């Protein structure tokens, strides 16, 4: 997770001013259907059937793949500025772990 947080902080522009602005930016990047807020949970789906991490592409897929924890950390860092803390992020499905795509839940409360 720490590696994913570092990756986000090295590669992303300045954080959004608010959660609402950040969610709109994230929806623009991934598509509105792929970033949905339901109460205190944001459902995130990466719309690819491949891992987007350039480091992970050189490593064989595994059922308990650790690179998915890196993605959790990336999402934590993405939401941190808007929440003023690291949120809990759950990996629901992962391409690297045998899923059809990568889906995460981000808990805002």
Note down, in words, how this protein is organized.
The protein has 3 helices and 4 strands; from the N terminus they run ααββαββ. It has 109 residues and is of the alpha+beta class. Strands 1-2-4-3 form a 4-stranded antiparallel β-sheet. Helix content is 36%, strand content 20%. Helix 1 crosses helix 3 (67-83). The chain has helices spanning 2-11, 19-30, 67-83; strands at residues 35-38, 41-46, 88-93, 102-107.
Can you summarize this structure?
The chain has 109 residues and is of the alpha+beta class. The protein has helices spanning 2-11, 19-30, 67-83, and strands at residues 35-38, 41-46, 88-93, 102-107.
As a whole number of angstroms, the C-alpha radius of gyration is 13 Å
Helix and strand run: HHEEHEE
Alpha plus pi helix count = 3
Summarize the biggest pleated sheet: 4 strands, antiparallel
Compute the separation of the termini in Å. 20 Å
Low-confidence stretches: none
Q: Determine the structural class based on helices, strands and strand pairing.
A: alpha+beta
Instruction: Tell me the strand percentage band.
Output: 15-25%
The quaternary state of the protein chains shown equals: single chain
In spatial order, strands of the major sheet run: 1-2-4-3
Q: State the total count of DSSP E strands.
A: 4
How would you sum up the global shape?
A: globular
Average of per-residue pLDDT values: 89
Helix content: 25-40%
